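F.,

This is the one I mentioned.
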C-alpha cells in the first residue's frame, strides 16, 4: 500500500495579489476571483480595491489592485500554473515587463514559508521578491491581515509600510 503524501491533503493558506490596468479593471479582478474559485481555491478574505499609478511609466493607465487570502490543497507550483492559466483566459498576453495588462496575479505568500521553484521555463519565488517595496501590495495586505510578517525578512507589515518612501503613501487611493 502506498501512503499518500501528507501535504496532498493539507490545507494551505496563501495570499495573492490581483491587478488590472486595461479594460474594465473591476470586472477583470472579479473574473479572476471567480476563476480561482472554480479551481478549488477558496477565497476567505478580500481587500478593498486600491488605485495606483503604473510603474515605472506613469503615463500608462492606472492600476486597480486587491489582495486576497485563500485556502487551497494545491502545492505552490500547481497554484502558480493555475494562476498563469487564468491570466491567459482573461486575455493576458506576453508583453513588455511592467507594461499594461488585463490581469496580473502574483503569489505573495504561501504558508508563511520561503519557496524557490525552477521547472522548465517556470520560475516561482515565494514570498514575492518585491512585495516589501510595493504600496499596492502592502496596503491591501495590511487591510486583511494586520499581523502578517514577511517570511524571509522577518519584518511585520506595519514596519514594511513605514519603510516606504513618502510618495508611496500619497500615491495610492482606496476605492
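My design for it:
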Amino acid at each position: 500500500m502506498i501512503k499518500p503524501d501528507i501535504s496532498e491533503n493539507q490545507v494551505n493558506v496563501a495570499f495573492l495579489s490581483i491587478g488590472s490596468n486595461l479594460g474594465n479593471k473591476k470586472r477583470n479582478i472579479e473574473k479572476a476571483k471567480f476563476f480561482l474559485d472554480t479551481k478549488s481555491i477558496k477565497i476567505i478574505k478580500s481587500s478593498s480595491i486600491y488605485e495606483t499609478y503604473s510603474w515605472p511609466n506613469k503615463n500608462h493607465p492606472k492600476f486597480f489592485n486587491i489582495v486576497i487570502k485563500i485556502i487551497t490543497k494545491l502545492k505552490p507550483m500547481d497554484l502558480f500554473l493555475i494562476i498563469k492559466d487564468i491570466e491567459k483566459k482573461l486575455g493576458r498576453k506576453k508583453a513588455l515587463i511592467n507594461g499594461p495588462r488585463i490581469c496580473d496575479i502574483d503569489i505573495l505568500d504561501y504558508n508563511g514559508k520561503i519557496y524557490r521553484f525552477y521547472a522548465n521555463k517556470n520560475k516561482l519565488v515565494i514570498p514575492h521578491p518585491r512585495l516589501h517595496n510595493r504600496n499596492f501590495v502592502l496596503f491591501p495586505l495590511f487591510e486583511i491581515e494586520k499581523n502578517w510578517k514577511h517570511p524571509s525578512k522577518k519584518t511585520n507589515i506595519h514596519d514594511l509600510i513605514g519603510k516606504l518612501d513618502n510618495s508611496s503613501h500619497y500615491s495610492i487611493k482606496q476605492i
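The chain has a mean pLDDT of 90.

Talk soon.
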